[in-house]
Automatic annotation (TrEMBL):
Superkingdom, taxonomy of origin: Eukaryota
Similarity-based family: Belongs to the glutaredoxin family.
Gene name, Swiss-Prot/TrEMBL: CUNH5orf63
PANTHER family xref list: GLUTAREDOXIN-LIKE PROTEIN C5ORF63 HOMOLOG (PTHR33558)
Keywords attached to this entry: Electron transport, Transport
Pfam families with a match to the protein in the record: Glrx-like (PF05768)
Protein name, entry field: Glutaredoxin-like protein
Organism listed in the record: Neophocaena asiaeorientalis asiaeorientalis
Length: 120
């Protein structure tokens, strides 16, 4: 009987540890998703895209950069729309800028989102 209770206790503590770990992961992913997503529509090669990524380097801790290769078959709608305009940037799914990084526009939009996130 004692062994059965010990196994039951160990099983519950494992469940508790597993649950705590899941909560920790959920909180970590929630804090990561709090950052805005900057989507770069690009293709290879794209010298202007490479240049834009260099300009974005000082801001990289303020957003998650998501690159979308418009030449992939699943991105054909983006190819049709942006084939002559890359690099194109969306911030949280909304068009932001194209051709070159407009640093003042990026800064303004990031500040706006950061203030909203801080409850301001």
């Amino acid at each position: 009987m004692w062994k059965i209770k010990m196994l039951w206790f160990q099983g519950n503590s494992m469940q508790l540890a597993k649950h705590s770990f899941q909560l920790l992961l959920r909180n970590l992913s929630a804090s990561k998703t709090a950052l805005p997503v900057l989507t770069l529509f690009t293709k290879d090669p794209c010298p202007l895209c490479d240049e834009a990524k260099e300009v974005l380097e000082p801001y990289k801790n303020r957003f998650i950069l998501q690159e979308v290769d418009i030449t992939l078959p699943e991105n054909s709608a983006w190819y049709d729309r942006y084939k002559f305009d890359i690099p194109v940037f969306h911030l949280n799914g909304q068009f932001l800028m194209m051709h070159r990084v407009d640093v003042s526009k990026l800064e303004k939009q990031l500040q706006k989102l950061e203030q909203q996130g801080a409850g301001g």
